Amino acid sequence: MLINDTRKKHGFTLAEILVSMFIIITLTTLLLVNYHSTNKRSELVMATQKLASDIRLTQEYALGSKEFYFEEVSQGVPPGGWGIRFVQPDYVYIFADNEPGGATNILGYYKTINLPKGISLISNNVSIVFEQPNPTVYIEGGASSVIIELTNGESNKRIKVNFLGLVDVMD
User: Fold this and answer.
1) How far apart, in Å, do the first and last CA atoms of the chain sit?
2) What is the pLDDT of residues 76-129, one digit of tens each?
3) In Å, how far from its chain's centre is CA 57?
4) Cβ pair 46, 150 in contact under 8 A
5) One-character DSSP codes across 73-112
6) Does residue 135 have a cis bond before it (omega within 30 degrees)?
7) Residues in a beta bridge with 158
8) What is the dihedral of CA 68, 134, 136, 127, to 10 degrees?
């Protein structure tokens, strides 16, 4: 004889709820870890692009024969052109050069560029000078090119500047 069970099952068992919660927590953790890593990489890419833009800006100052102002008094067009100096791990300087022909003699600093927090330079003590009107490019040490490398502690990005003044962001 068949007995009809009139009771209906409602809800989920404890095991089903625990498995569902475990899956949701695991996926959320993976998403947050990947988001943090992607965010750090994108900050490095943006800092590299900004620094490459600042190198091009320095080159444009030389091409445009931009005057250098010290304490709001014009010093005229710097005879040695405009340069960018990578000295500190988190600072870059744009400067006016007083010595033509590639010998760096800083007339004055025009702008200090602070790198974002967590981004630092691996390449230190390098100067690149763009002398007008061509501009002729002088790389410290007489090298034909220089590679400026930035890091966020996890990955690196590089900028290459050659003797023709070509600024290339490398992957």
Assistant:
1) 77
2) 899 999 999 998 788 899 999 988 887 788 888 999 999 999 899 987 788 999
3) 15
4) no
5) EE--S-TTEEEEEE-SSSEEEEEEE--TTS---EEEEEEE
6) yes
7) 149, 170
8) 30
